[in-house]
């Protein structure tokens, strides 16, 4: 390993840049659908060695060293995000005549922007870099802070945070309940970079020992929660949920002539008898924007829903809600959820609060209007963000915490009122992205919100993956991608969470402080040979 480490450190020019990009691309293999955790050990070991070899001419000074460290992280990030997010370009092909020109921007432009965060990560790490295991702590701090910033700067896009790569199965997801995704990222980067110590020897015993303890804690806490933390007994009667997965091609939903047929397909699936003597569903869930027209402007559609539902049943559906503005102005449109009872009455509603940039609205719209660039989703003026999130409360008193589409990737979107909910409700339409890694990555991130909140998750997706997931992240019933049909399942109970968002954030910052202290002590001891 020492010879290999030496060769990596001494790389220069295009070979060095190429290896940095390749290392980032290898890291993306840790994400669904591949979920190859070992790829992170390879990629971050290479990154540590490349950081070891970061050097500039003496006359370049401190600024030159910072520039070299930032460039290395940017190259790593570019490889990671191109390999992990290339599927975003598929959305532009739904209406290829209008948007195909923007394909390079989606595949390479967005990764180039997101890579800036990883450039910042290695820049932060370079400030505390040493030649012992303290440099692993420095790199961990840099990446954790970068991922935290990525979750909210410029509306936020924390998709595929590094920590998700070490949580492919439920036993490995439970740590997120204690320290959140960014805390998991912090500790994961230290662990997956530890094999680099075999190549330099200094600090190997201490660093590998810490990594072993962290791995044991990760699996130990997971085993404890999976085997010894029980669901909270509930006084509520059991509720049967049907999730409709209609597999409607996105082009059909955009075709005015086909919209009524699309609506009827949802109704037909909703009316199917339960299989194998299962209970009649109390709640039927349709995916995001399932109703392909403004429901309140089509009273006949509400009548058809009432004709389909049996007494006492409730339909929860993704819709587009229109709100009249001032006379002469265009209506405001909201990406919303309606709960509709068996009389065809809308009894609860909630709007999407965190909109998707360039999909549902255009940042700096006046600028893009000058260039003739519009939203991917055809909606005059784009969507309007809801002022606040409203729980979907049914006549039975049972409430659901709504997360529409990619709202489920933001841990901070789950507020304190989640404690009043019986379950999380995530509806989405991933048909835009086809059978690519996107829907599988989205599914994993939604599962983590169930673990963090201690609530079961009802997830309805147009083309998949739809599922009922319990409060430990275990999939109890699911339909795979592109599998048309319904899920009938009884909703499991919640678990009173040990930690909430506030305590998870506190734990995260305490861990940041510990790792930063390790890096500082290592840096200070470098001259004295303490590593």
Task: Tell me about this structure.
With 531 residues, the protein is α/β, with parallel strands linked by helices. Helix content is 44%, strand content 13%. The chain has a six-stranded mixed sheet with strand order 5-4-3-2-1-12. It has a six-stranded mixed sheet with strand order 6-7-8-9-10-11, with helices on one face. β8 (423-428), α15 (437-453) and β9 form a beta-alpha-beta unit. The mean pLDDT is 88.
In short:
With 531 residues, this protein is of the alpha/beta class. It has helices at 2-9, 13-27, 38-52, 61-85, 96-99, 103-127, 134-150, 175-193, 197-200, 204-228, 250-253, 259-270, 299-308, 365-371, 437-453, 501-525, and strands at residues 240-245, 283-285, 314-323, 332-341, 346-351, 392-393, 399-404, 423-428, 457-461, 466-469, 475-479, 485-490. The protein has 2 domains: 2-228 and 502-525, no CATH class; 240-497, 4-Layer Sandwich (Nitrilase/N-carbamoyl-D-aminoacid amidohydrolase), CATH 3.60.110.10.
What distinguishing features does this structure have?
single chain; 531 residues; 2 domains; 6-stranded mixed beta sheet; globular
What is the CATH topology assignment of the largest domain? Nitrilase/N-carbamoyl-D-aminoacid amidohydrolase
Q: What is the average per-residue confidence, as pLDDT, rounded to a whole number?
A: 88
List low-pLDDT spans.
none
Assign the CATH class of the largest domain: Alpha Beta
Q: Given the helix and strand composition, which structural class is it?
A: alpha/beta
Give the strand order of the largest sheet, numbering strands 1, 2, ... along the chain. Answer: 5-4-3-2-1-12
Number of strands: 12
Q: Total number of helical segments?
A: 16
Gap from first CA to last CA: 19 Å
Helix and strand pattern? HHHHHHHHHHEHHEHEEEHEEEHEEEEH
- Characterize the overall form: globular
Rg result: 25 Å
Question: What is the name of the CATH superfamily of the largest domain?
Answer: Carbon-nitrogen hydrolase
The CATH architecture of the largest domain can be given as 4-Layer Sandwich
Biggest β-sheet strands, sense, barrel: 6 strands, mixed
